[in-house]
Every structure is written in C-alpha cells, then in structure tokens.
Amino acid sequence: MTTVEEPPAATQHAALSIDGLEMSYMVRGTPRAVLRGVTFDVRAGEAYGLVGESGCGKSTTAYAALRYLPGNGHIDAGTVTSDGQELTAMSNRELREFRARKASMVFQDPVQAVNPVLKIGRQVAEAFEVMGQSKSEAKVSALHALERVRIAAPESVMERYPHQLSGGMLQRVVIAMGLACDPTLLVLDEPTTGLDATVEAEVLDLVRDLRSELNSAILLIAHNLGVIRTMCDRVGVMYAGRIVEEGTVDEVFDNPSHPYTKGLLNSIPRKGLRKTDRELFAIPGAAPPIGASLPTCTYVDRCPIGTDLCRTDVPPIVERSDGHWTRCHFPDRIGDVPEPDEVTVDYDIGTEQIIGVNHVSKTFRQRGHDVPALVGVDLGFAEGETLGLVGESGSGKSTLAKTMLGVHEADEGGEITLRGRTMAGKATSRITESVRALSMVFQNPDSALNRAWTVRRILQRSVVKLTGVTGDAADRRVEEIAEAMQLSSRHLDMRPRQLSGGLKQRVAIARAFAGDPAVVVCDEPTSALDVSVQAAILNLLARLQNEERSSYLFISHDIGVVRYLSDRIAVMYLGRIMEIGATETMFEGVNHPYTEALLSAVPSVDGIAEDRIPLVGSIPSPANPPPGCVFHTRCHRAIKGLCEVTVPEMVELSPGHSIKCHLTVEQLKEPIHIDTDAVLAEPAALDES
Amino acid sequence: MSTGDSGTGAAGPAPQSVSQDLPGAPAPAAKSDTPKNDGGRSGRNQIRREQRRVLFASPAFIIGVLIVLFWIVAAIFPTLLTSAGEKEFVEAGPNSKPFGDSWLGTDSSGWDVYTRIIYGARPILIVAPIATALAIIVGTLLGLIMGYYRGWVDEVLSRVLEAILSIPVILMAILVVTTFGKSTPIIVGTIALLFVPAITRTIRSASIAESDLDYVTSAKMRGESGLFIVSREILPNVVGLVVVELTVRLGYAIFTYATLAFLGFVGANVTDADWGVDVAQQFNQIVNDRWWSSIFPATAIASLVIGVNLIADSIDKALKS
Q1: Fold designation for B58-320
Q2: Which of A181, A505, B147, B234 is deepest in the core (most CB within 10 A)?
Q3: Hey, are the CB atoms on A536 and B44 less than 8 Å from each other?
C-alpha cells in the first residue's frame, strides 16, 4: 500500500505530528492492518478531534500518539513526532521521559485509571513527585491541581478514596493528574463516554476552560459528533484505519465532502428532527474488520456514489477549501449521496389507554433502611404511542421499567393496569395475557441474549411461552418475526457472539415483539451501538411500532434520539416524574428547571452554543431525599423558604403538559445566565455508614 | 427456511422504504457484514471444531490422554498387559531387584511389582471417577441453586458447606469408616462429600454472575419458572466450567483415594492389588534398600494424577481460547 500524497497543512514543530502511520496487530500468527497511513498534525493550543465508528482505529491512533503499543501491535511504517522529537525513533528510556514530562493521557473509565487503595491526595501528589518535587511541595501542588479542575473543597477530596467520589469527580481528578506535568500534548480517549449527559457537559466545560489556560495540544477521541463539534477546532474523520476527511469542525460538519462523513451526519437525529419528518440514514453494511484487504478506497464497499474507478485507483486527496480536504475521487458528487427517505406513514396514536401506571411506588429495604426508588409514578400509554423517559442515572428509570415488567413488585397502593384491569405484581403470578402485554429491549444485547442459545431458540422460547403456539406454527412465527427484523434464516442458526452489535440488538427486538406486546420498554437500546447502526435500529423501531401498533417506553440519555422517536416525554428525578408533556411542547420553552438544565447539557452536532445551566453536585441518595421539592438542592431557580419546605404538586400548564414545580410560568420564562466558569464541582456528601 | 432467504438476497424489495436499513445489505457489503459467514448450523460446530483443534494440537493433552488410556486398559483388561496373576508367586522369588529377572522387581511377598501395579489400577479407577461424578452432580446442582436464589437458601447451605470444608480429610474418613464401614460405596460417598463444597463454590460464583445478566431478567419477565431458568438458561453457560471442574477434581479424587488406601481406610483386602495399599505394605522395605516395591506403585499414582491434570489444563486452555 502506498501513501498517496502529503495532505496539506503541515506546519513545523507541531505538538503532535503523525505521518503516514501504518500499524498492524498480530492475531493468531498473522499481522492484520489496523492503521493504513494516518497523517495529521495537532498544533500547540489546538484541539483536534478524531471521529469514526468503533474499530476504525481511533483509539489505536491515540495510543500510537504516545507510542503506547499493545504487545501484539507493530508500527509498519510512518513516524510520530512531538515538538520535533521523533517518538518512533526514541529508546525506551527517552520514551519514558517523554511520557512523564511532555504528554498525558486521560482514559474513558476514570475508575480504572486510579488506584482504589490510595487516597486521592496521595495519587495526585505522586504525579508531581515524578516531576521531581519533594513530598511537601507535591502536596501543595496537588491541592492547586484540584482547584484548577474546579473541585470545591479540594482538602476534603484529597482525604478521600476513589470509591467515595462520583465518576465525573474522578474524571476531574484524572485530568488534574494529567495536567501535573504541564503537558505539550494531552490525549483524551472518550473522556466522557461513561458519564451522564449533565456530568459530561461539566467535564467538557472544564476541558474547554483549561484549554485557554494551557498551551497544550489536545487530541480528543470521541464517537459522539456533538462532543467533537463543541470541543475541537479541527476534526479528522477516520474510516478503516485512514483519515478520509479533515478540516475545521464547522467546515466538515456543515459541508461534508466525503460520503462517509455525510452518511454519519445523516444518521444522527439533528436539528430537532422527528420520526414524522423523515427516516434516519443508516449506512448499509458494516465497517470492515481489522486486517481486511482494502487496496483502494477503504469506503468503497459501502459508498452510495462509488464507481469502478474507486475499485481500481486509490482516491487522491482533494482540497475543498483552506485546510479542508477529502480523500475521494468524486467530492463534487457529494450531492448524489441519497438523502434519507421521506416518511409516508402516519403515526396515529390511539385514544384508549392500554397500559396504566397508577401511583406506583417501589421501596427497597437496604441494611434496615427504606430506600424509596419510585415515588407515586403516574403514566399512561395509548396505542401506538412512544413515551420518552429521561433523567440522570440513579433517577429510577430502570426501576420503573423493571417494576412495570414484574421483576420488582410495586408497593401497596399503586397498580399497573392492562386495559383497565389490575395486573399482579410479580411476573410469575401474572396471567399470560398480562405477561405478553409488556416486554423489554435491554441496553446491552450481549448481556440480554443467552449466549449458549441459538437465535432460533431464543425467539422460539418467547413465542411458545407467550403465545402458546407450538410445533410448525411456532417455527413459522419465528421466521416471520426474524424476517420483519431483516434477519435472514442464516442468522437464526447462529449464536449471539457470531453476530454484530446491530444484529444482536435486532434479535433482542425480535424477542420483545414475539408475544405481540402492548408496551415495549426500550432501555437505552442504542447507546451501545455506533451511530449508523443506531439509525437502522431507530428506523426499525419506528416502523415496527407503526405496523404492530405497540407503545414504547423509550428510556435514553440521548435527548436527540428521544426527541426523534417520542410523542411525549417524561422527566424523572429521584424516582419522581417532574415533568411530562408532548415532545413539541417540551422543546418549545417553559420547562421544569431540571428539564431546562438537562436540555442545556446536550453537546450539539449543529454547533449552536446556548447558555448551559450547570447542575451543581450530584443526584442525592434516594435513601435520604431532600425535604420539600427533591430538586431544590440543585435548582437554579429555587425560592428560599418555599422549595425546601413544601412538596410541589403536579400542575397542568397546558393540556397534557404538567410540571411539579412551585414557580409560575412567568417566573420560569425569565431568562437566566450562569457563569459556568464560576461553578465548582461539589463532592457528594460521604455516606455515614 | 425457503422464504427467509429471499429477505437478504434481494436487498431492496422492501416496500416500506426500509432499504437503507438492511443488515445484510447490498451485494458489495454483504461480504463484510458477518465475519464468520459460513453460517448455518456449522456456526456452533465451527467454534467447537476450533476448540478441538487447539486441544488436539496440544502435546500436553496427547501425553495426558496416553497415560490415562494406558491405565484404563490396565483396569479393564489387565491380562493384556501382564501374563502373571495378581497374587501369583513368580519365578524371581521375593525381593528381586528391578530390571533383572523381573522387570520392576518383586516385593517381599514374592509378587511381581509390575503385575501388582497393572491389577492395582482397577480399584482406583472405579472409585475416583464415580466419586467425582457424584460430587460434580451434587455440587453443580447446589451451586446453581444457591447462585440463582441467593437469600436464606444460600446462607444456610453456605454454612453447611463451610462446616464440611473445615473438617480435615483424614478425620472425616475415620469418622465415616468407623461409623459405616469400609465398603466401596461408602468410600465413594466419602470422597464425593469431601469434594462437594469446593465444586459448589466455583459453580455458585459463576451462577451469581450469570444471574445478574439481562437474559435471566428477560426470562423472569417472561414468567419462566426458577427451575427452567436454572436448568435451561444458566446451566448451558456454565457447562464449560463444569467440565474443567470435573477433570481437576478427578485428579484430586485419585490422590484422595490413594491416601485413604495407604492409611488403610478402604475396604480392600491387604492382599488385593491396590496402589495405595501396596505402598503402605511395602514402604518399610525402603530401609532395607528395597525401594522398588513401594516407589513404583507410588509412581503409578503420580502418573495417573499428572495425566488427568494435563488433560484438565488443556481443556481449560482450549475453552478459553
């Protein structure tokens, strides 16, 4: 494989310069190509983003930037240079020195990046001791480092162990350690992926603020296009081990010139897109596995505008505008990339309530304490309706799902009804009709599908158990459902581990539809998937709903996705519904302060910078909920003397739109601006036990 | 099946504008869609075949199998391997040195050591596998139930098992033998009982991990019974572990039986060929420089244990590959 020509925009002494990097992994004795000539520069003070689907080589590039190679990884060609020093030519000793003094890396999971048995203060100080400071100096430096990452009460945080801090707080600590050496190069590998949207926004705010203080070059790896757009100056779009398009974020996201970039952007619901507007674009096929033979254009197998030329000639680098280039034979034909289909079906919603959740509470007993996980939840599902459910982790979304499905039994006084008739609490004591009426699609299909069973058996069991059909009729039904999910009969005889993530989730959805359910609970069904696969799954869910007339309870932290699919949205906090209303109404304005903060936290791929309302601290423990309005401790509009005393009632603002808040519409409409720089992250109170 | 195929093949025909959505998708992409696309029923077999290939390519496994096979043949057809009888006085006379008139020498009773070893394979190869099988069945059952149901069932059984674990092997053997006698079924039962706690613990922790997975939640939501979930959903996922436990415990069981035989806790008559008994009968000859009559049966015990452990290790490695 030959590298074509030098991409433009090479500057001298870039903080990071990767040139024609080719890498392979040794898998069972054969080398498999993972990077196929990656070239880019990151200048000092600049933030450069790398996006792409999983398996495209983003993380490998991130590690290669510090020459951290796994045991089976090998650099076949190319160089990695930082500030004029060539990493690829360094001895191990020089490399260690470089990593200690010039570069830092922040990983996806902060829990794994810290030592669980050392206090935070000790660990942060260690980073300074490596730099040659004495113990006492290092301690002072550590304190300053924690202040720098906007942690309130750093003294108390230093005395804590990692398990006593939340994920967002820990990520701050990890960033503080990373900044200890005042690095020339800071590599962030999916730094916010495991965090809640609100915490993600906080961490991103922090990194953005730090950028202006530091002169570091930042290499940010993320699969979330919104994160890249809001954080980076320039972006490289990676596909199958090669950068296919590069430019400033505005150029690339507003005028994509490579069919892959365009496909990615079309696959996410943006600009308030709804399922009634159009389908999402799902890039056909799947990314090639590492080591696949791709002699010419890496994207040709999935490209909608490819020609024979793309299979015979390596595409050249074509400059579109200053610093914006694409690796494509036909950048001018980008307009030929098909737009997603218009939606021709009507999504009509029935009027009769099929499933009712009436004043359902769920209290767990934990170490002799009552922990109310759900408090007086009221919801109703009409035929063919999607109810989106949002809220931070720990707000009780999954408990509600499990209580509805009979894994937990609701407390006395609440009931779940099917067409007006009360269901039994536990699934095992429900009659088949009730069991059939509710089903669930889980977040992680690897966990949700029995890996010892074939797809056929997984579907068959649900068909037999739920519909009572047996023998040939059951076999036929299984094949019918599989076909509706676009699974072929070949897939039926496979086991889950032989299927890709998207196919596994299709199997899980097929199982959920096996008993003709009235309500399907979808608990983050696409958060483990790549955006192009997510688009296919969301299209499938929308289409199935229309055909089967099922209702969905759609749980997701991705506001864009919830907005796309939902007819109504409910917002949950600490086991209580704080707001519920039609999707249009929810996005039009007057919201519960909690919703307001949630909505403002979303990093948008459209790059519209809005005033963000930070949520201070973390969600309180349900074992010990705040008095009055449970949200008053974090509310930016709380009224002293009222909110912490009186529990607000649900108030209907307009037909179908209700909020649980003391404030009037006028008060809620008042614009509010909070200087996010001034906000410090409060560590959560320590558990007494 | 015939209708299912047309779904992916023709890609575009879906009337409701879902063409973009196809996982199998248009012709050029189909190749990369599923990595292992020789599909069909061979999917499972392929994984199995792969594992079997790893297994058979391992020299440790081959050696282990050869050793164990040799002793199995000895246990079933001793006359194929020796012409002398179990209690036959051979020409060499008592205390003859090995590699002379008799291959492995003769013991103080004038019996041929080699012949005794061949005949001695039978009792150990009857007791150890049966005891192990029994322990595996009980241990797997208990482990699955404890791991799935947790709560008080788990608490109570855990304490009982810990109690058994805390009793030393020898003490337990003395207790059982003096109470119930030394018949073979009693010995089998004793060894099985000793092994149940360890097996239960291993399977229990695997069962706990499985029970936390969503497929179990999904089965509960379907209203499946606990029995179904444990036996059909969870068991197939821990069966690899059961096989590994089986082979590992078999090694221990052989050793335990030999120990009990050495200490005289097994029913065998001292004149019957039995490795442990023979070592016990002959080891005092070592002081007279007549080491062969005890060292060779001891080596037989060791070789069988090693053979079984080689197999156990290789299976474990193959399952993890």
Answers
A1: MetI-like fold (1.10.3720)
A2: A505
A3: no
